[in-house]
Amino acid sequence: MNAHFSFTGAKKLVFGRDTFAQLGDHVRELGGKKPMIVIDRNLAAAGFKQKIDDILTAAKLKYVLYDGVEGEPPLEMADEASDSARAGKCDCIVGIGGGSAMDVAKAVAVIVSNKGKAKDYLGLNNIPRPGLPKIMVPTTAGTGSEVTFTSVFIRNDLRKKEGMNSPHLYPELALLDPVLTLTVPPAVTATTGVDALCHAIESYWSIQASSLSEMISLEAIGLIAENLRTCVHNGSDLDARECMLLGSLYAGLGLANAGVTAVHSLSYPLGGRYGIPHGLANTVLLPAVMRFNLPSVIDKCATIAQIMGEYVEDLSLRDAAELSVGAVEDLILDCCIYDSLETLGIPREDFPELAEIAMTVARPLANNPRKVSIADAIEIYEDAY
């Protein structure tokens, strides 16, 4: 064995029930006196602003609230929120919500400190200096954005997704309170949960995986497989919600260190061109990519099947591996996700163009354990149709 790897993530993790109540203390620990709070519109509409106000008022902290984040945020939103942070003279950024709110918050932190516009920092390692201190608080168990170095946005002018990718986007603190996930609706619980499973599986079979990231990714697969159904159908089960949030965290750590693969490259055009939510796009494509990758990671697929509760004893390695695809498909159906590219309204005649766009999302494809050509990408889209 000749092991060489590094492992990174958020500088500090705080996990546990009712930990959100200490938000004000954590802001002060980071030297913050006037944070900007970034939340999405759904949280704002659900009355979450009062909870935030109660906590920060008790901590005697003034703050600026940006509550306009929408799903699949456009790049311009990062600039708009950054202008608000500058105008309010904020010294700390707190992102609360799903991946969209946290991605906007992370981007704001670096844009304010580095000046310029959001488009200046797209791509890999194009952020020259650290940003404002930032705290990420997930309210869904899915994206893992609280521990990753990426912020993803829609480029409306180009009709595609692009991301900022830099170590400067790692949060100073990830604050994970499973109580905050109790009110997530079943459909969102389902698609964000499968998104987390996708992160776990892709990071497990990524060619960048290490023994440490593989261990974490496998733990994530097991936690999600055991608890997602309960969270979808009995969302008030706090034990299951806690396990799902932990699984999502582990999947995010796997993603941050081993990367994602072809599922994400193929899903990006669905979000950029048609506005398909990220988690749903990944859900629809995951089984098809598993079938494509299976011959190159047959041993890992067999392990995935076993971790997901399939009986693999006395089976050949190939037969055991194939059970992993069925296990994922059963989980998706049990969570009442019945979508395909056809039901999502994606025209088959667009597949060649989508495949060409997917090939430009090069980094995840480079991590994939099996080389993907344009023809392969079209075949995968056909399988998911």
What does this structure look like?
The chain is of the alpha/beta class. The protein has 2 domains: 13-180, Rossmann fold (3-Layer(aba) Sandwich), CATH 3.40.50.1970; 186-383, Dehydroquinate synthase-like - alpha domain (Dehydroquinate synthase-like, alpha domain, Up-down Bundle). 51% of the residues lie in helices and 11% in strands. The chain has helices at residues 23-29, 41-45, 48-58, 75-87, 99-114, 186-205, 211-233, 238-258, 262-274, 278-293, 298-307, 317-334, 351-359, 362-367, 374-383; strands at residues 13-15, 35-40, 64-69, 92-97, 123-124, 134-138, 150-155, 160-165, 173-176. It has a 6-stranded parallel β-sheet, sandwiched between helices. A hairpin with a 4-residue loop joins strand 7 and strand 8 (160-165). Helix 4 crosses helix 5, helix 9 runs antiparallel to helix 10 and helix 13 (351-359) packs across helix 15. The mean pLDDT is 95.
Keyphrases for this structure?
Dehydroquinate synthase-like, alpha domain, 2 domains, Rossmann fold, 385 residues, 6-stranded parallel β-sheet, alpha/beta
